[in-house]
From TrEMBL:
Origin superkingdom: Bacteria
InterPro entries, alphabetized: SAM-dependent_MTases_sf
SUPFAM superfamilies named among the record's database cross-references: S-adenosyl-L-methionine-dependent methyltransferases
Descriptive protein name: Methyltransferase type 11 domain-containing protein
Length: 230
């Protein structure tokens, strides 16, 4: 994930009522993982790639403390200082050189993989997810859902790239301000690469795949691995 992309993710994750409902539902999977780890070792070390402290307000502080949870938030830009259960780590989520293999219990990442760059970067990111912990939770918006959540337009991500660049150059789209130059518009468009199910499975072949639905449509994909370390 580039620094420029990282600077927009927090804005795009601004809570909405619908978004909050989905995140509350997702929290069930994460609680199950935390509970399993705590039962095994009496604590739980989480590394959140591209994460924010605000996201973890989904969980009651008393619950996180009762499970002795500690959370490392990884971002390419400095985003905060150590506070309570949270530690901030400035690093590339595709190459977290500061962390050894299986140095955490759970890798968590919410709406980040689509921001890290091209396919080779996505593969590197997925490799880090699998390397850093035996359990992981990865969520990403689904390419075939008709509404693009970053630019907040229906069918936007299905348009030719040249059309998307032109629109970003001319208009503010969602929380993404109009770009003054074609170069800036190109960068904005290339910061988001949504995945379909086949691509997502390729990145996380050992995970359970969960389709998060809104009415008849698959809205998001979740890759879940909640098995104990070998």
């Amino acid at each position: 994930m580039t620094a420029q992309a990282a600077s927009t993710i927090g804005i795009e994750r601004t809570p909405s009522n619908l978004g909050q409902r989905f995140r509350a539902r997702r929290s069930t999977y994460i609680r199950q993982m935390i509970d399993a780890v705590h039962a095994e070792r009496g604590s739980c070390r989480i590394i959140d790639l591209g994460g924010t402290e605000h996201y973890w307000r989904l969980f009651e502080p008393a619950y996180l403390h009762s499970k002795n949870v500690s959370i490392v938030l990884v971002n390419p830009l400095p985003t905060g200082t150590t506070s309570g259960i949270f530690t901030y780590l400035q690093a590339d989520a595709c190459n977290v050189t500061q962390a050894a293999d299986n140095s955490y219990d759970i890798v968590h990442t919410n709406s980040t993989v689509e921001h890290v760059g091209d396919w080779s970067r996505m593969k590197a990111f997925a490799g880090e997810v699998r390397r850093l912990a035996p359990r992981y939770y990865v969520q990403t918006p689904y390419f075939w859902f008709p509404y693009e959540p970053h630019f907040r337009l229906p069918f936007f991500h299905w348009l030719p790239r040249s059309t998307r660049v032109h629109l970003q150059h001319q208009f503010t789209l969602g929380h993404r301000q109009r770009r003054e130059t074609i170069d800036e518009a190109m960068q904005s468009i290339e910061e988001v690469r949504l995945l379909d199910m086949a691509q997502f499975k390729c990145l996380f072949p050992c995970a359970q795949m969960i389709r998060e639905r809104l009415f008849p449509f698959t809205k998001s994909l979740i890759a879940l691995k909640n098995s104990p370390p070998a």
